[in-house]
Structures are given as C-alpha cells and as structure tokens.
Amino acid sequence: MPSSRQRSGAGSSSSIRYEEPGELERLARELAKALGKWPTGIFAGWYPIKDQRDVDGPAAIVAGAAPGKALRLELMIDQPSDPDRLNGCGLFVANPPWRLAAEAETILPALAERLARGRYGGFRCETPAAEAGIDSAPAG
C-alpha cells in the first residue's frame, strides 16, 4: 500500500494528502524545542502551504519561542482557495541573519510576480506575533 506521501497512478483522487496530519505544528514545536536549547541559534523550517489558515497557529508557536526574533516568509503562486493543492510555500526563520528580512522584501515580490499561476501571486515577510493561549513549549 503506498504511503500518504506517494501519488497514486492514473485516476487518483484529488483529495490525496502529501503531508502527514499535524506536520506543520510538529515543525513549529521542534523549532521551539531547539530554541529552548540554543536560544541564539539560527534555525529555519520550510513548509508547504495548501490552506493558509493552517499556518497561523504554528507561526504563533515559533513567535512565542523567539519573541521579536522570528521571520515568517511566504511565497504564494496561486489563490489559496483549494486546500488540496500546493498554493505556495513558507519558511520560518528564528534569529534570522542580518538583512534577511530586507533582502526577502526585495526578492519575494519579484518571485511572486514571475512564478504566479495565472494572475495571482503573493508574498509575506513579517515578524509573527505570539497569540494568547498558544503554548510555545514543546509537547511531551
């Protein structure tokens, strides 16, 4: 039986998931765990974006682990209206190198324009905020 990460042959359903459930939250918690051990280390974690709403909680976890010292960089190449399709990708960066945010602000709009499917391309370059009630401590 193929794993959930493998694409089936012809006639496959469009609802096939390529990521494991909870994978993005696990990424955020592992980054938080690493920051707990090495608070000045530079850490990055890439993630696919299918449904934009799935990213806000993990972004808050990373922000809580590195208050004011995290970046949320995202590139959208399609409208985030189909959660079964890869619509973009993102990168959490904790303790980013100097000038990374400034460089991303220059590069991401150009990439969004050139890589857009159809007429939609978007980007985000921001310092995420920790939300009340979001626990940044690693689970377990």
Provide an overview of this structure.
The chain is globular and about 45 Å long. It has a domain at 42-126. The chain is built from three helices and four strands. The chain has helices at residues 23-37, 53-65, 100-115, and strands at 43-49, 70-76, 88-94, 122-126. It has 140 residues and is an alpha+beta fold. It is 31% helix and 19% strand. A four-stranded antiparallel sheet has the order 1-3-2-4, with helices on both faces. Helix 1 packs parallel to helix 2 (53-65).
Q: End-to-end span in angstroms?
A: 31 Å
Specify the biggest β-sheet.
4 strands, antiparallel
The whole-angstrom Rg is 16 Å
Q: Helix and strand string, N-terminal first?
A: HEHEEHE
Give the overall average pLDDT.
Answer: 83
Poorly predicted sequence stretches spanning 5 or more consecutive residues? 1-18, 132-140
DSSP helical segment count: 3
* Class by alpha and beta content: alpha+beta
Estimated share of beta-strand residues: 15-25%
Number of DSSP-assigned strands: 4
Q: Which percent bin holds the helix content?
A: 25-40%
Query: Major sheet: order of its strands?
Result: 1-3-2-4
Shape: globular
What's a quick, concise take on this entry?
The chain has 140 residues and is α+β, with helices and mostly antiparallel strands. The chain contains 3 helices and 4 strands.
Summarize the topology.
Layout: H1 23-37, E1 43-49, H2 53-65, E2 70-76, E3 88-94, H3 100-115, E4 122-126
Antiparallel strand pairs: 1-3, 2-3, 2-4
Helix pairs in contact: 1-2
